[in-house]
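G., the chain you wanted modeled:
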Amino acid sequence: MNKLLAPLRRLLRSHRRLVAALLAGAAVWAALTALRPAEPVTVPVLVAARPLTGGVVLAADDVQVRRLPAGQLPSEYLDDPAQAVGRPATLNTPAGAVLLPASVVSRESLAAPGMAVLPVTLASTAAGLIEVGDRIDLIATSDDAAAPVASAARVVAVLAADTQSGLAPARDDGPVVLIELRPDALAKVAAAAAQGPLGFGFR
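Predicted structure as C-alpha cells:
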C-alpha cells in the first residue's frame, strides 16, 4: 500500500500550491453557492400588453400573461385573460402594468355591499381630472341655477367620453363615470343626469 501511495504523496508535495489553490477555489465556490439567494417563486399574472384607455372594451391582444415574482405582487391580481377580455377598462393603464380586479368593470370592482352604481356624464372639464377612487360632489346645472344632488360620491370607474361599452350611451361631453351611491339617492341623481352633464367638485 505504501508503495502505491508514495507516488501520490510525491505528486501532492510537488504540486502543493496548485492543490491548495484548487481547494481554496472549491471553498469559495461552496460559500458563494450557500449565500446565493433562492430563485424567486413566480406566478402567472395578467398585464396590459399596450397602453389601455379607460372605458374601452378590452380585446384578447390588449392583455397578456407573464410570470412575475409572487413577492412583488399586490394581494389581488388577475391571472387569466377571461377575467378581462370583453370588459371595459375602468381607467387608463400603462403597458406592462399588472391588472387588478379593479382594473376592469366587474361586480367585484363596483359597489360596496348595500350601495348602488349609476353611470353619469360629467362636464367636459372633468376629462383627465377624475380618477377611480375620487370622492366628488355632483352638481346639477341649468341656465340660471346650480344645485347639489350628491355628496362625496365615490368614482368606481372612468369611461372614455366616446366609449361604446354598453354601460352608458356615447356623449359629446365629458367622461362617463360610474358613481357609487346610496340607493335612496339614485332617483335624484338619475333625474339630474338625464337633463345633461353634471358639474362636480372634489372632496
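Residues 2-35 form one domain.

Shout if anything looks off.
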